[in-house]
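ESCALATION

Customer reports they have been waiting on this structure for their group meeting. Please prioritize. Original submission:
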Amino acid sequence: MNIYIICSVRNATSEYTGRLYEYVADLEAQGHKVHLPPRDTPQGGDPIEINKCNASAIGKADEIHVSYNANSTGTHFDLGMAFILSKKLVIFDIVDGPNLIGKSYEATIREWEKISKTWK
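Update from on-call: job pushed to the front of the queue and completed.
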């Protein structure tokens, strides 16, 4: 299965990045192909090129796995791309939450995760 990881890249702590790499290592040990942006998307270039690379990887993914951080604008951008493509969602971490009340983004992605299991 192809999996794209939505996560924080800029301002990510070494502890956070370490958890991401452990999670990805587990997925890859299970035989999945994983796109992890801090590792697989060239980060030094033009922001448009970074987002085009991520969009291509999201488009090819069978599932989107999310480490959600409300302060990460890149996370929100990638979630929007994944949503418009009706991708299946798996949340494996919520960094700054959860705020599960009302129309919060955290509540929205939790609902998306539930209903996306029925998407084809």
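Sent to customer with the following note: Strands lie at 2-6, 33-35, 63-68, 88-94.
Escalation resolved.
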